[in-house]
């Protein structure tokens, strides 16, 4: 009798987290480079822009880090929200397993909030445009574009609440869980307005492409989800009607 043994590497459980960290690091590095080079468009040749990137001082680098962290967090939160629309609509069901989709959705939310936290935390130490703890935590208290910065703070709290309910689903029930999750759409819209009207990179091509592209994708998935939900309710009502008919006719 032949016995087949399967040997797995002790690093196998870390494969997915490491791959996620590598991917996110590449996205963050790409955002950082794009912001630095995009901000020095008037600098002339590409070699001059690369030289300016390598010669950044400590004041400049933290200012660029907080901006790149904000854009990366925005991108990951958008991706998590799109994944959240895709799970109930089952648009990716033939390709991805349901459990993986749910775990990936949660993982993206945590990563997105992590980069948003980095975006906020660095502002406490940034000397280019400094913020204090009150201005970061309390909406509409800062002199710099208070409306849009305040909307960004409120959006962060909404997204934090939505992500926190991942761990309270059994306690609050599925209905409350889904209702609270709808707040992620408001959080995303608020983050978009914050980036467009309070962000210093909204004029850059990468930022315009990011905001416009993500918004159009959200509109598509939201419309698809609403249509599929409407058809699902209609089909359910039709089935209930058909189930009643045999018992009413003899």
Q: In short, what is this structure?
A:
The protein has helices spanning 15-39, 46-54, 58-89, 98-123, 133-137, 146-164, 169-172, 174-181, 183-198, 205-248. It has 250 residues and is mainly alpha-helical. The N and C termini lie far apart (63 Å).
Structural class: mainly alpha
For the largest beta-sheet, the strand count, sense and barrel status come to:
none
Q: Low-confidence stretches at least 5 residues in length (pLDDT < 50)?
A: 1-7, 235-239
Q: C-alpha Rg, in Å? A: 23 Å
Helical proportion, percent range = over 70%
End-to-end separation in angstroms reads 63 Å
What coarse outline follows from CA principal-axis ratios? globular
* Subunit organisation of the chains: single chain
Q: Beta-strand percentage? A: under 5%
Sketch the topology as an H/E string, one letter per element. HHHHHHHHHH
The strand count comes to 0
Give average pLDDT, whole number.
77
Number of helices: 10
């Amino acid at each position: 009798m032949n016995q087949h043994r399967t040997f797995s590497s002790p690093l196998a459980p870390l494969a997915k987290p490491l791959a996620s960290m590598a991917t996110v690091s590449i996205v963050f590095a790409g955002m950082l480079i794009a912001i630095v080079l995009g901000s020095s468009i008037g600098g002339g040749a590409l070699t001059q822009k690369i030289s300016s990137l390598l010669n950044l001082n400590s004041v400049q680098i933290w200012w660029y880090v907080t901006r790149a962290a904000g854009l990366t967090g925005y991108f990951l939160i958008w991706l998590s929200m799109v994944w959240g629309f895709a799970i109930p609509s089952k648009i990716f069901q033939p390709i991805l397993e349901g459990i993986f989709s749910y775990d990936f959705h949660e993982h993206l939310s945590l990563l997105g909030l992590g980069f948003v936290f980095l975006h906020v935390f660095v502002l406490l130490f940034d000397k280019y445009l400094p913020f204090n703890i009150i201005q970061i935590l309390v909406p509409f208290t800062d002199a710099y574009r208070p409306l849009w910065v305040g909307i960004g703070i409120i959006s962060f709290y909404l997204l934090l609440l939505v992500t926190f309910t991942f761990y309270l689903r059994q306690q609050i029930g599925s209905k409350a869980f889904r209702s609270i999750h709808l707040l992620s759409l408001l959080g995303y819209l608020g983050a978009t307005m914050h980036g467009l009207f309070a962000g210093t990179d909204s004029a850059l091509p990468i930022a315009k492409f990011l905001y416009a592209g993500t918004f159009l994708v959200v509109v598509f998935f939201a419309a698809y989800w609403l249509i599929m939900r409407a058809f699902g309710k209609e089909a359910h009502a039709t089935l209930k009607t058909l189930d009643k008919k045999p018992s009413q006719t003899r």
